[in-house]
# Entry
Amino acid sequence: MAANKEPNSIVPLLSRALHRIRSTPPRIIASPATQPRRAAVAIILRVAPPPNWVFPPPQHSPDGVSSPANVPAPSLSEFFQLDWVNAPGARPEILFLRRDRPDGNDGGRMSGSGPNTREAHVAFPGGKTEEGDEGGLYTAMRQTWEEIGLDLAESSYTPVGQLDDREITTSLGKRLLMILSPFVFLQLSPQTTPVDPSPGTTLHWVPLSVLLPRPIGDGPRWSSVSVDASSRLAPRHSTILRILVRLLVGSMKFPAILIPASPYPAPSSSPLSSNADEKVIDAKRAHVESAGASPPLKREHSLPLRARRSPGDETLKLWGLSLGMTLDLLAHMAPAETRRGGGGAGGAGSAALLPPDAEAELLRVPVVAPSLASVFPRFGYPDVNFWIWVFGKRYRAVIRGWEASVRAGGTNDRRINWTGSALTTFYAAVRKALVVVIVVRAILVLLGLLLGGWLLFRR
# Structure
């Protein structure tokens, strides 16, 4: 259990991951001329100090006024040398959002909810790039400010780096929607600055220990999310066709991790009162919105700062793109020998970040890209999965080439878009398999009708 583990044992792994992200150039995917849309998200990390940690009083200037703004922010290396960061009981955490009205494929109320439970999923703050944005990093910071009122430009936060770009597709990978850029941020202060979430948005600081495999963490609680295949294969307004596809193809299941539904608490050690929090937010908002050349950051009318949705019996799930980006982040925390597919413990570490029912071919890939497991669905009908395997020869060849490249030292890792190639070939196999399944089922139904008519005619 988390209470029996030493959370600060994860701090060195987090330090190694963030230094690796900062020193590793991300794979940038250029937007094609036919689809220039892009988006960006902010992956925000912090280290929560031990509950009983006593901080020294703030230093005062000669005139008796405290001036924390004059204290220089620590560098990444200096941060992980601070006493409260390495103290027993310090807990690395990652920020997720739960939205009442999520937008895009990475949102929505989950299916399969019981009568007394609700299922929703979590995501990262972020959104689409708008005209006037100075780049993906600016988009991630702007969207975070607009959505939750967190100013990542403050000295309390530092941009660490960027993970690899991701292609967001629809129609089973056939049409490109946009390119998504994930940016990693680290909170440098022990207390989180006041936030002002948009209506219907709750913040969840989740310990990394619940996401990391044993013996480092508690081991993720794997689950699944069922998605109606007709919602992705049939036109939205064609009810009859959607019913036919639902009967012939069934549902798709994506892996998910259960997240503790503990909403973001107001920091009890913060010296600011509720009124002071609101004044700070208003001052920051006025300062940012009055900036000169940069486009103004618009904020929606917000709920009271302290008002938060009671978690109740709601189940939160991490899946889809958000799960993929989280797994990419966790992969950077793995030892180098594991990332290169070393034997022994390395092989076990490679499979530890994957769901228990992951495809056998995925288990061949070192943890350099466990996020593939988050976007490869399994279908409810076994014959669909069988035909995907039959047509997956090119997909398996890509996986073997990827594995050989990583074991050889990763020299081709950054030049070849292995993730994109694997997704393209996998979804090509899915489309072929679905065509075969629908045709075979249609033939069987036709033969059944003919046989039934023949038997009735003989009587």
Notes: The chain is about 35% helix and 20% strand. The longest strand covers residues 175-187. Residues 198 and 300 are 6 Å apart (CA to CA).
